[in-house]
Protein 1
Amino acid sequence: MAKFFCVVWATKKFELYNQGIIEFKDIPKTFSLNENQWQQVNCELEQKSIIDMPRIKDFLSDLIYPLYFLDFETFQLAIPKFVNSRPYQQLVFQYSLHVQKSKNGELLHSEFIAKINSTDPRISFIRKLIEDCGQEGDILVYNIAFEKTRLQELANDCPEFSNSISNILTRLKDLMIPFRERWFYTPEMKGSYSIKVVLPALFPEFTYSNLEIKDGNTASLTYASMVQDSFSGDVNKYLKALLEYCKLDTLAMVNILEKLSTL
């Protein structure tokens, strides 16, 4: 029985706690929760999953091959180091890209990480991304707002690439939608649709725990310290670790889509 409430419940969990309610089963039916929150409660109590097959099928049938699975990593600097950048701007420095040219086709992989030097990492990043993404096919990301915003910033800061970036922008699709919209939900997701929660809910054996770098925040701080010459570790070793982490993110997306397809 779930005794602790997901952080998305914000102040409501404390309101319940102050009333002496610490288990889902004791929440009064008259208590003010939204539809998604009640869904979380009922799925937990009944240990049931929700699978909206018609909507999932529509989502899958709308995908255009070749399919690209894309994930960015960014870093921030308090003092701008590059032209057309600002304090604490999220600057792209690496990506992972898995590609499937046809359904059930061979899975290919491309990746990029900017060299640690005085040049602007965004330039080499966007040149390679444009080359790797080709001209057609959908580009799947998880939480489209992040990648979309970074690409729009790149188009503004590097206008010579704006047409090619526009092509990529029009092809973006969000793999988070089936989970955010609760077309697929399991009790293991605990009210969240973050990829770091969805992934182990679907694939308990899929883990980041054996990686040197296990999360995006560590990736960002590691690269930023390298750029600022304050990193004390083995640079080459940690550049490889950054690539391994980012690669696992897009491989996770491939597995998630495959899971939806097998439903």
Protein 2
Amino acid sequence: MTAMSALFAFLHHLAAFALVAALAIELVLLGEALTVDNARKLIRVDGAYGIAAGVLLVVGLLRVFYFEKGAAYYFHSGPFLLKLALFIAVGLASIYPTVTFLSWRSAVRNGQAPQVDPGRLRTLRRIVHAELAAVAVILLCAALMARGIGQIA
């Protein structure tokens, strides 16, 4: 393993841990009363989540194409393909919470807690729960893939 390969592996893992931490923080904040402070935190944490996801994707693709076993290996791996599909699904699922949190900016700037229907808050919590569950499966896929399990002929 070259120094660059090790650096990109480190960055990939760091971004993955940041993504999981952001989702966990979102879940905790969504379980509390929606105050101005909590809404502000949710907006910021969701921004950090987006940055972590972007870094994770870019660094992961660089690893696939330039630093690890090569694209042919990864694109013939069932766990890798599932991992990539789940990452895309999590990204798509995160659109709803992000749009919701961003819609709160004006109220937060005015020092007011956003007025959110309890049903919408439940939906946000369910989405974040689902994202965390999908990330757990992504981690399983990563472990399988790294050991060559599930290679497609």
Protein 3
Amino acid sequence: MLQITPEERLVLQLLAQGTPMNGIAAQLGVTSRDVERQLIKLFEQLGASGRTEAIAVASRRGLLIPDQVS
């Protein structure tokens, strides 16, 4: 079973909203490099090869809040 943290869920939500990596980093109070590492981990967990696929998989698995996705 997929286990993601609330912060990882937020990263996915921001990614789905089209927020750039530096914007995600600013919202989380971390560096862009930290966000990049977190995205790589999320891609692996979701079995996704990139952002678009990760968003699609997360959406199918109910990991995104639909009315907050642009």
